[in-house]
Design goal:
Elements (H helix, E strand, L loop, with lengths): L8 E2 L1 H8 L3 H10 L5 E3 L2 E5 H16 L6 H32 L6 H30 L5 H24 L13
Antiparallel strand pairs: 1-3, 2-3
Keywords: Coiled coil
């Protein structure tokens, strides 16, 4: 063992024998940041006293349930965040289901059907306006003129309804030519 020693720095196999674990386990502990190596002329070696102290502290922390490694701590934190997000989404889903059951929300199909019915009724009402207005004008204006006004109003209502249905923009016809 004295032959392997170089100024208090030891190879991985010596440290593994001292700790009673495999070489691979020592490498894992090094990767996890539990113990560390020092660069020497012969390569990366373990300083005996700090390595033993760090390993003993690691074992104590592990025995008393303290933080194991940074990677495990981060994973636990991510898991807790994910669990919180899951619980929040489950709560939101439950709230929505309760509100749906209470009748606070309606299905898209119902809304489409209601809008369809409304617009059919509205169109019938709007299309009946010119004839109602023409009936009121009958006693005041010549019947031919009343019919002409009714036709013009009918065209205007039809144009406005078409504009409303297509994109809610009234298209300006060339009224400059009309008197």
């Amino acid at each position: 063992m004295a032959e392997e020693k170089t100024n208090g720095y030891y190879k991985v196999d010596i440290i593994a024998d001292l700790f009673g674990v495999s070489v691979r386990r020592i490498q894992q502990l090094t990767q996890e940041g539990v113990i560390s190596t020092v660069a020497t002329k012969e390569g990366r070696r373990y300083d005996l006293v700090p390595t033993i102290q760090k390993y003993v502290k690691y074992l104590q922390d592990k025995a008393y349930g303290k933080s194991k490694s940074e990677a495990e701590g981060k994973l636990k934190e991510q898991k807790l965040r994910a669990e919180i997000a899951l619980k929040e989404s489950q709560s939101e889903l439950h709230r929505l289901r309760t509100e749906i059951a209470a009748g606070k929300y309606v299905s898209v199909e119902e809304v489409k059907l209601d809008y369809s019915r409304f617009f059919i009724s509205f169109k019938k009402f709007a299309m009946s306006l010119p004839s109602k207005l023409a009936g009121r004008l009958t006693g005041f204006v010549d019947p031919v003129e009343v019919r002409s006004i009714e036709n013009e109003l009918q065209k205007d209502v039809q144009r406005l309804l078409n504009s409303f249905v297509v994109n809610a923009v009234v298209e300006e016809e060339e009224k400059n030519g009309k008197a």
